[in-house]
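#lab-general

N.A. 3:47 PM
ok so I finally got the sequence cleaned up, no stray characters, all 93 residues accounted for. can someone with queue access submit it? mine expired

B.Y. 3:52 PM
send it over

N.A. 3:53 PM
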Amino acid sequence: MTVSGQDEGLASALRRFPTHSAQIRHLIERNESFRAMCDDLAIAERALLSVDRLPSAIRDERRIEFTQMVDSLAVEIERCLSRIKVVFQRGTI
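B.Y. 4:20 PM
back already:
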C-alpha cells in the first residue's frame, strides 16, 4: 500500500472516530491488521461515494453492498478501539 493509501485509511478512521485519535494512530503504526481494516474502510467509502456512476441496473445493489461493508468495517475498528482503550487506561502502552 502506498503512503497516500495509508494516509487515506488513517483519515477514514479519524473521521469516523475523532475522539480516538491517539488509539487510532497507535494501532495504525503498530498493527498491520488494524491498518488493513482502515485501508479497507477508505476503499469501501470511496466505492460508496462513486456508486452513482454505476449503471442503474446494479446501482442499488452495490449501494447496499458498499454500505454494509463500511458499516461492518466500522464495527470491527470500533471493537479494536474498545480493546486498546482498556490498555491505554491501564497505562501499559
